[in-house]
Amino acid sequence: MKATEDILGPGYEAIELPLGNDAEGEVVATLVRRRCPGDEPSRRAVLYVHGFVDYFFQAHLADFYVERGFDFYALDLRKYGRSLRPHQTPNFVQSLSDYYPEIDEAVRIVREEDGHDVLLLNGHSTGGLVAALWADRVRGEGLVDGIFLNSPFLDIAEPLVMRKVGAGLARALRRPFPQAKLPAAVSDRYTRSLHRDHDGEWDFDLAWKPLLGFPVRVAWLAAIRRGQLRLHAGLDIDVPVLVMASARSVRPTPKLAVADLSSADAVLDVAHMARWAPRLGRHVTLVRIDGGLHDLVLSPKPARDEVFAELTRWMTGYLPG
Q: Are 153 and 125 in contact (CB under 8 A)?
């Protein structure tokens, strides 16, 4: 497939993956690639899958992997970021399995076309849930050698009653009104804590990752809940899994200080991640990061350094050399 220079500039390539049509028309995903420098091609690679209201922009994450000899790949899933088209509802699917074709094709390119022997799958938040379900689906096929889940979306960050009410409403409405918007209050505090034009240090496209996000639609939430309950029942991922989460969560209320917001997960409940991580497979490592944000690799530098140190230690111990 033809590769063009990516929006991140020299060294990054973008490969458009055609995925046919759905009810809204043409669908594509985008595979971003950055190869290690040097004459000898790397035999190791990582594939990154982003979260909800997100896309790949974390160039320092690619730096980390490339410096350790991994060719870096990232998927912008259908209807996200580079793959979002004007005729599409942003970030919307009716089943998490809708994402499997682009992951299948990305892995095929990494393995077959680019010739990598070792592949680490790295998922963040919703991408962590999708990556886990996909890995369980392909167990025994030897397609991945390890999985790193950064604050995976393993449960809904609401009290039990609210989780049941919200999931029940989504189930009831998903067929007659799949794109109905749920009355979910969305705070802009987390995104503001990240973006360099507000309280953060990172630059990203606010059209693709808006301050107030995109609406939560009933069919999407129903799909998330089906995936989570499937995981709660127990997966059987057959490669080592590393789960990382912040040491604590906070609610992003208007009165919350920026310092508190910048040292905890303001999106999900980290206790849920700790509770459900053992259901991923037989070999799971859980690491908690003091001062970590929801996207741990966007945390302030001390916590970010800890994330990368723990990830390096785990990769050294559990991935093939």
A: yes
Instruction: State how far the Cα of 236 lies from the Cα of 281, in Å rounded to an integer.
Output: 4
Give Cα 39 to chain centroid, integer Å. Answer: 31
- For residue range 170-222, what is the model confidence (pLDDT) as tens digits? 677 677 778 889 876 677 889 999 999 998 999 999 999 999 999 999 999 99
Cα–Cα distance for residue pair 288/296, rounded to 1 Å: 10
Tallying the residues shown for the chain, one arrives at 321
| Whether this model's pTM surpasses 0.90 | yes
Summarised one tens digit per residue, pLDDT across range 31-41 is: 999 999 987 88
Report the alpha-carbon distance of residue 255 to residue 273 in Å, rounded. 26
CA of residue 13 relative to chain centroid, distance: 20
Place of tokens 């009165």: 255
Cα–Cα distance between 89 and 22 in angstroms, integer? 12
Q: Please count the helices (runs of H) and the strands (runs of E) in the chain.
A: 9, 9
Q: Taking a C-beta distance cutoff of 8 angstroms, is the pair 213, 257 a contact?
A: no
Q: Rounded to whole angstroms, how far apart are CA atoms 199 and 87?
A: 33
CB–CB of 189/252 below 8 Å? Answer: yes
Provide the residue type at 235 as one letter. Answer: L
